[in-house]
Amino acid sequence: MKRSIEKITPRPARPGMVGDGFRVFNFIPGANISQRRISPFLLLDFNAEFDFGPSEKIRGVDVHPHKGFETVTIAYKGSVEHYDSAGSRGVINPGDVQWMTAGAGILHKEFHEKEFSKKGGPFEMVQLWVNLPKKDKSTPAHYQAITASQMGKAELPGNGGLVNVIAGVFNGVKGPAYTYSPVNLFDIRLNQDGELTTTIPAEQNASLLVINGSIEVNGKKAEEHSFVLFNNDGEEITIRATEKAVVLLLSGEPINEPIASYGPFVMNTQDEIYEAMKDFQAGKFGVLD
Ligand code: MN
Fold first, then answer.
1. Confidence at 289, pLDDT banded by 50, 70, 90
2. CATH number of the domain at 5-252, please?
3. Would you give the DSSP letter of residue 180?
4. What is the mean pLDDT of residues 158-162?
5. Ligand 1 centroid distance, CA of 110 (Å)
6. pTM of the prediction?
7. What is the mean pLDDT of residues 159-163?
8. 112 CA → ligand 1 middle, Å
9. Distance 13 CA to ligand 1 centre (A)
């Protein structure tokens, strides 16, 4: 049975800045899409294509903590460099994903890659926050660098396009990301009139963001930069590109546990939030210059 659509939300009127390097439209929870409704996703920030121009000062967000969830950064255009207190450093380029599990706590910083920053050019990214089940909130921090070439690849029939499977399973093709609860994350590239049909279990919360182009989804039109939230009344999703399109489809089994969140900390109770703040202030998340 086809999933019906609860609502299609256009891009919010104004972007916000994260540091000086990410000019983002916030859809979750900003566009009236609550963390409970869309669990396990906590946040979706979309840096729609924007050229910051050449800059000698490297743009980005300086050292900050995270605890209790995962940050997932998907690069569409431009490059991002990351450093963290676990000693990791990495660069993601167009098509790549960084899946960071903050778990027990981490400090990191996120900047435009140096050469990219100097040259400038189109920059397009999504950052998602994915909640962790209570039992995994204390898992040691780590991250998965997932390059475009490592993703599952599903070619669509009739030269329809390509689905890069980041996490979960698309029509039998598996993605490489390790997740702590069932999550599907698909980077969908459709040629004009390209079409796909897939099924997502009805109990999973499912949505999609039209990164570029425009589509028809389960019979409804979704314009560029709009966000589609599906009801949990069926499995089937059919997408057709009315023009060449890039779509991010995200779904996941809801984590039915209380959410207590304060800025970069997402726990289950207010006491755990105080604990997280104390641990952060006591330097327990490590050191990062
Ligand atoms: Mn961060």
1. confident
2. 2.60.120.10
3. S
4. 97
5. 7
6. 0.98
7. 98
8. 13
9. 24
